Structures are given as structure tokens and as C-alpha cells.
User: Fold this.
Amino acid sequence: MAIKTENERGSIIMSNTVIAHIAGMVATGCYGVVGMAYKSASDGFASLLKWDTITKGIKVSTEDDKISIDLHIIVEYGVNIKVISDSIISNVRYTVESMTGFRVGNVTVNVEGIRVD
Assistant:
């Protein structure tokens, strides 16, 4: 799917993958986030994704010109998960809206694991 807008000069179509890349870069840049996670359906374990597959941990959907983003992350041990989640939601919403011009309806953060070094 993609989100589309039109004006007198033409139309703009933005792929959900582009939005997922933006959201993934912002989320992984937040303090306390180790990376994006992908939960396997077969064994139920979440694995840390490499940079080139970052969008597997993000689900983007569009409805009525609003974007919904579901993020699956792994955090560092000892950090306040609520504070990190609030920061991610705020930063992802602001950055996606400012870069794309589309309204973000909701951002959901799913913590799939904690990394202990």
C-alpha cells in the first residue's frame, strides 16, 4: 500500500516502505534502543535486525490520509521503557509528519526484548 495526495500540478505517491525507513532510522537513534526486532512466527523468538532489513520490524498502514506505525524494538537493560517509548512515539510522529507532509494517526511501540551486555 501507499499514501497518495494530489494537487493542481500532479500527485505524490509515497510507499509504506519509505515511511518505514524514516520511522526505523528515528527509532534506532533514540537513547536506549538497541535495534529493531522481528518476531518469528515459527518459534516465537524475537531477533535483532541488521540495518539493511530494518523495515521488517515496522508495520505501516494508511487509512483516510493518516499513517499508523507499529514498531517492534529491543531495548538496553536498565532503561525506563515507558520513557523510551514516549520519546520514540514523539520523535517518530514529528519526523514522519515533517518529512512527508502526511498526518500520523498513531504510533505503537512493542518492546520485544531486552539486551543484557
User: Anything to note?
Assistant: The CA atoms of residues 76 and 115 lie 5 Å apart. The chain has a mean pLDDT of 87. The helical segments are 16-28, 81-100. Residues 81-100 form the longest helix (20 residues).
